[in-house]
Design brief:
This protein is of the alpha+beta class. It has helices at 3-13, 110-122, 127-134, 138-153, 191-195, 210-219, 223-228; strands spanning 20-27, 33-39, 54-68, 71-83, 93-95, 165-173, 181-189, 201-207. Strands 1, 2, 3, 4 and 5 form a five-stranded mixed sheet that branches. It has a three-stranded antiparallel sheet with strand order 6-7-8, sandwiched between helices. Bound molecules: zinc ion (ZN).
Length: 229
């Protein structure tokens, strides 16, 4: 693609904020959109000796990204590889780190993890519907949703400033098909909604019915928190 075309594509797909720039795109027979991209400002420092390496080549890493125009998106990220020439360094070749785009071994981009949690928790979409939108397996979405929800809410200071708590009970199927359903209680910070300063924020997701979960959860908080909510 030429430069103005890339800029338009990056603006539509919000790829710059993801840390990549689009170089090409295609649609396959299964109606999935393939987006080819390069890493913006790759880190050339060797993870062992911290010296800048020499560009060697690029290897494609394929990641599922958020849907575009209602179709699943596969992002083909050309990850640069470098050669380390430091004489006493044991590493010869290394990849540019792309943790800001996707974690090691992840099959979806970091922003897709957030998208999955938002669709399930905020929009109350089923795991199956989210999986169909992304073009990935139900089990993958279910694992990402539970892991991401825990990682998003447990950042140490996530209860600071909470004065108004929202409680929502969801039916959450752990097994596809005819399996048992169980309940998940979602705790949401509504302080910013009441104050008119921002959207609701996910605080916690705990297995079980809301009445019991809320009682146990509040009992585990300190008195200062209980007094102000
Ligand atoms: Zn090195």
């Amino acid at each position: 693609m030429n430069e103005p075309t890339c800029l338009i594509a990056d603006t539509i797909c919000r790829t710059v904020e993801l840390g990549v720039t689009i170089t090409g795109a295609a649609v396959d027979a299964e109606d999935r959109t393939h987006i080819f991209c390069e890493v913006l400002d790759p880190d050339r420092r060797c993870p062992d000796c911290n010296m800048a390496g020499q560009p060697r080549d690029r290897v494609a890493r394929v990641l599922t990204d958020t849907p575009a125009a209602g179709h699943p998106v596969l992002l083909h990220v050309a990850v640069p590889r470098f050669v380390c020439h430091t004489s006493d360094c044991s590493r010869s070749v290394f990849h540019a780190r792309i943790d800001h785009i996707a974690r090691a071994r992840a099959v979806v981009t970091n922003r897709t993890k957030r998208w999955i949690v938002q669709r399930i928790v905020v929009d109350k979409m089923s795991v199956a519907a989210v999986a169909a939108n992304l073009g990935i397996a139900w089990r993958t979405v279910n694992t990402i949703a539970t892991d991401a929800a825990r990682a998003l809410v447990y950042n140490g200071d996530h209860l600071d400033g909470v004065r108004c708590l929202g409680v929502d009970e969801h039916k959450w199927k752990h097994v596809r098909g005819q399996g048992d359903s169980s309940f998940v209680t979602v705790l949401i910070d509504l302080t910013t909604v009441i104050d008119g300063t921002g959207p609701a924020r996910l605080l916690d997701m705990i297995g079980g019915r809301s009445k019991h979960v809320l009682k146990t959860w509040m009992a585990a908080r300190d008195q200062q928190f209980r007094d102000r909510t």
